[in-house]
Design brief:
With 321 residues, the protein is α/β, with parallel strands linked by helices. It has 14 helices and 11 strands. The protein has a 5-stranded parallel sheet. A two-stranded antiparallel ribbon has the order 3-4. Strands 6-7 form a two-stranded antiparallel ribbon. It starts with a helix and ends with a helix.
């Protein structure tokens, strides 16, 4: 599969999702970036903004196994991974797979589960495998976790630790619709739920092929330096306790390559880095308490760091090959 075929596949999925979700074009693009770069997504916003609907529409557009699990304080790690149970009729133990054995897993309200259960996803998300009773089982490809959480309500929740956040390629916020979008939502859902009427427009095998070939997108040497300069600034800034890790810089590279494809190109430009820097890097930064108190979030900090960097020009990129 070449970059043009990946672009066509992405357009088909996006058009299908937009039959259900009104607006949110940039958010859908970011989910597609995660899907094609083998990443995971954390959707964070207040209830009722369409987080679960977006995740379901994405899953319905991609043929494969979709599982949803509602995270609660009494949820156990085995409820996710599966268990070995004793079959009395056959007098032997059998494995009953959990919802992680799917292509797209919707982890609804992930911050309502205990840290023990949250940590059970670490191995699944990073290594695409599950270790149960000393036996390691590989997960099917593609495998993508779309998690949702409410950032406002803190009662009965357990904030995701930094190690868990770092496993998410992208963290995005849905935001409220505009007046025009709100009116379109009312009309679209007036008589029926359009989610019940959409069908898959992509096979899981096609997504897997796209994941194997998106790396064909070319990245100039100066753009490697541009991305690493941004990462280095997050590590040395006075308001940052912990900057972007090497995993974060690799995630940024994967994201900008897929984002370039979505824009119809087989090469990366500086605008791709600017577009993906905040959704990929902001949730990986740990800011000082005084900085958070001043209302200077990680996204604003990244904006200021990008403004300080010298952007590679087209002439320089062409001149150096």
């Amino acid at each position: 599969m070449n970059t043009n075929e990946i672009k066509q596949l992405a357009d088909a999925i996006k058009g299908n999702v937009q039959k259900v979700v009104v607006g949110k074009s940039a958010i859908i693009d970011q989910l597609l970036v995660a899907l094609f770069s083998s990443g995971h997504v954390l959707l964070e916003d207040v209830p009722g903004t369409g987080k679960t609907l977006l995740a379901k529409a994405m899953a319905a557009s991609v043929g494969g196994v979709f599982k949803r699990i509602q995270f609660t304080p009494d949820l156990l790690p085995s409820d996710l991974s599966g268990i070995n149970f004793f079959n009395q009729q056959q007098s032997r133990f059998e494995f009953r797979p959990g919802p992680v054995f799917s292509n797209i897993l919707l982890a609804d309200e992930i911050n309502r589960a205990t840290p023990r259960t949250q940590s059970s996803l670490l191995e699944c998300m990073e290594e695409r495998q599950v270790s149960i009773d000393g036996e390691t089982r590989k997960l099917t490809r593609p495998f993508m976790v779309i998690a949702t959480q409410n950032p406002i309500e803190n009662s009965g929740t357990f904030p995701l630790p930094e190690a868990q956040l770092d496993r998410f390629l992208i963290k995005v916020s849905m935001g409220y619709p505009t007046l025009e979008e709100g009116k379109a939502i009312l009309k679209r859902f007036k008589s029926a739920n359009p989610l019940d009427e959409i069908h898959a427009v992509a096979e899981a095998a096609q997504v897997e092929a796209a994941q194997d070939h998106y790396s064909q997108v070319r990245v100039h040497e100066d753009l490697y330096d541009y991305m690493l300069a941004l990462v280095e600034k997050t590590r040395s800034h006075q308001d940052v306790v912990m900057g972007v890790s090497p995993r974060g810089s690799q995630a940024l590279l994967r994201a900008v390559q897929v984002y370039a494809i979505l824009q119809g190109r087989d090469y990366v430009i500086p605008d791709d880095v600017k577009a993906m820097a905040k959704p990929v890097l902001a949730h990986r930064l740990i800011l000082r308490a005084t900085t958070r108190a001043k209302g200077n979030p990680a996204e604003a900090l990244l904006d200021s760091l990008l403004a300080e960097l010298t952007v590679p020009t087209e002439d320089a990129l062409v001149g150096r090959g």
